Amino acid sequence: MNVAVIGCGYVGLTTGAALAWMGHRVYCADRDPSVVGLLNDGKIHLYEPDLDRLVSSAAGAGRLRFTTSTAEAIVGAEVALVCAGTPSSPDGSADLSQVKDAYECIARAPGPRRGALVVATKSTVPPGTCSSLAARYGSYGMRICSNPEFLREGTAVRDALHPDRVVIGSDDPVSTQVLCELYMSLGRPLFVVSPIEAELIKYAANSFLAARISFINEFAELCEAVGADVTRVAAAAGADPRIGASFMQAGIGFGGPCLPKDLKALVSAGRDHGVAMDILEQVERRNSRQRARAVERIARALGGLEGRIVAVWGVTFKPGAGDTRESPPVDVARVIMESGASVRFYDPAVETPVPGIEGAVCCDSPYEAVRGAHALALLTEWDEFRWVDWGLVRRLMEGDFVFDGRNALSPAVVRAMGFEYAGVGRRTGGTEFRHVHPGTP
Ligand code: UGA
What we know:
Elements: E1 2-6, H1 10-21, E2 25-29, H2 33-40, H3 51-60, E3 64-67, H4 70-74, E4 79-82, H5 97-108, E5 117-121, H6 129-137, E6 142-146, H7 156-161, E7 166-169, H8 173-184, E8 190-193, H9 195-226, H10 230-237, H11 259-272, H12 278-302, E9 309-313, H13 328-338, E10 342-346, E11 361-362, H14 366-370, E12 375-378, H15 390-396, E13 401-404, H16 411-416, E14 420-422
Parallel strand pairs: 1-2, 1-4, 2-3, 4-5, 5-6, 7-8, 9-10, 9-12, 10-11, 12-13, 13-14
Uridine-5'-diphosphate-glucuronic acid is lined by residues 124, 149-153, 206, 209, 213, 247-249, 251, 253-256, 258-259, 317-318.
């Protein structure tokens, strides 16, 4: 099938490369000439494991091309996938201007078309967007439908090639048929629903994930108050398949370019439709509280932050991603700096100053970051932090406080090296944690 992908961000580039890998002929458009220039030179502008190899093999096979022109990308296409960004507007609602621009470019593209083009929005958009786009652009020879994307940064390639499900939001049999054919070879469940349901499914998924995180974070605070360890509570409660253990990791909260903005957009959409989204508003409040609690905990251990040096391990919003947008670690580091401390940070995916904490010193190893520090804060759980030489860290640090903002470390190991350890909802000492399977001696 001939496919046009509009927008070469995480979703667009990964989707385009995955579809080309599946055998489709894909033409990706991005209006940023520097992005397209890099892609045409065989490089990628994103930090995403395995994506470079997927892109280069698909491009090498002649099935993946790039252009700055949407009009060129859609020539001969049977389907166009709109993968434009939908950032937050100042009032929290989704800013749809990039999506609308993409539709506008398709509508105004000159040149012949083989009948009406199926145009599916992969961007996360509020309920009702598809029908307003259809009302505005339907007469321009487009069959407009919704096809939300569920891939995650850090595992985007795997998620695109092995999705849990594909959601097709369409009331039009021709569009449904085209999109089913597009994804059929993945051999994954296809859910064909109305466009508005497809839009809501994406929001339901992201806001439910956010709610799980805030739930366990609230529980973590209770665990601290009563002397329990939230990692044990989450592991055993999550062993019930109705609950599940994923997205139950307590810490400094969720961030990144998706969950926070989607939550805001959903609360705003609820407001527009006269529905109070009380649970989700509380999810947001708890998420902000986690960041504030982290700063308070470090300040308490140091007797104030003025004049102190804090080492930060990890500034991306999660491990495996190179993205610092809406990153909880950046927020925590920023407030630490605003409180009079200086920050030295190390992150395996970041080599340059980070917007929001420009004054922080960017170090090239975890050891360099802790040199002379009064406290260490692990804020993104990159694997390499689990295997550091704690003896060396102890010798390099001026102080002895370790805040584990992702519960990624073994408190016993860290304490054994002479540190004071604090996690999120973790208790000190007590019953040894045992997880015994039948048959284990
Ligand atoms: C999220 C969704 O997981 C994807 O399904 C969705 O497609 C994507 O948004 C999107 O809308 O494009 P992503 O933003 O890449 O994916 O990141 P997640 O893996 O969901 O993590 C989000 C945040 O939650 C991170 O800051 C992470 O550290 C935090 N988190 C995650 C926790 O604090 N605890 C957990 O147990 C899990």
